Amino acid sequence: QWKQLENLYFREKKFAVEVHDPRRISVSRRTFGQSGLVVQTWYANTSLIKSIWVMAISQHQFYLDRKQSKAKIPSARSLDDIAMDLTEMGTPKVSKLVTLEAKNQLIMASNGSLISSGSQDSEVSEEQKKEKIMELKKKEKLLQEKLLQKVEELKKICLREAELTGKMPKEYPLAAGEEPPQVRRRVGTAFKLDDNLLPSEEDPTLQDLESNFIIHQKLVEAAKKLASEPDLCKNVKKKRKQEYADAVKKLQEIENSINEYRIKSGKKPTQKSTLTLPGERIP
């Protein structure tokens, strides 16, 4: 009987009915004491279980409304009340179910109970409500922290892309009223060495000097690109010019060492640095 009903609830694929049976004594899952609470359980897929639960809640609410209407003294009804009732009777059943579920703010997609459905006959302690609210707030906090972490990762990726392309991507997350950061495009200073730098048996010492010259030649070209980069502050520009000058001087010293060795070996000297770097001046 409805007066023996304690709770109706579903969890995922489980639908359960709790009733009071004075003939049976069992341990209550709430109070851990002796009580006559009996639980009947059925299993099916989630959508079917939820539909059964909604119909059971509606049927129980009908019982409560009928019980309450019997206790009231019938009174004369106005034409407006009759018109309102006729309008509600014409409402589709689906919208009524939606309205029923909208009233329940604690029902999640995979679980629900008579306690959370707002029934007039349900009795739930404030402690249980607080526990449920605290659990939901904890989940919300974890999701917010994870969202902030992903947003920071997206910002780093967008900044890296802007440094390579010189243009901030539209996916960069911005807060309300926030301006996108100004990012300067990085100067490409990467270089690839030739494949013929491996030592040979012809003259290992001379080839080692030649390889060292080629490496420093690439470094000079990279230093020149950095020194020629526009929109630099005065101190940075001065420092890069000095680094470029030191690299050129080092390259010239390596070439002098090569020429000294070539002269000692009876070979002609070279002028590689003056040919490969005709313009040492930086605009």
UniProtKB/TrEMBL annotation:
Source organism of the structure: Irena cyanogastra (Philippine fairy-bluebird)
Organism taxonomic ancestry: Eukaryota, Metazoa, Chordata, Craniata, Vertebrata
Region of interest: Disordered: 263-283
Protein name, as recorded: FRM4B protein
GO CC terms, sorted: adherens junction; bicellular tight junction; cytoplasm
Coiled coil: 126-153
UniProt-annotated location(s): Cytoplasm
Keywords: Coiled coil, Cytoplasm
Example GO BP: establishment of epithelial cell polarity
Residue ranges occupied by any FERM domain in the UniProt entry: 1-67
Lineage: superkingdom: Eukaryota
One Pfam family in the UniProt entry: FERM_C
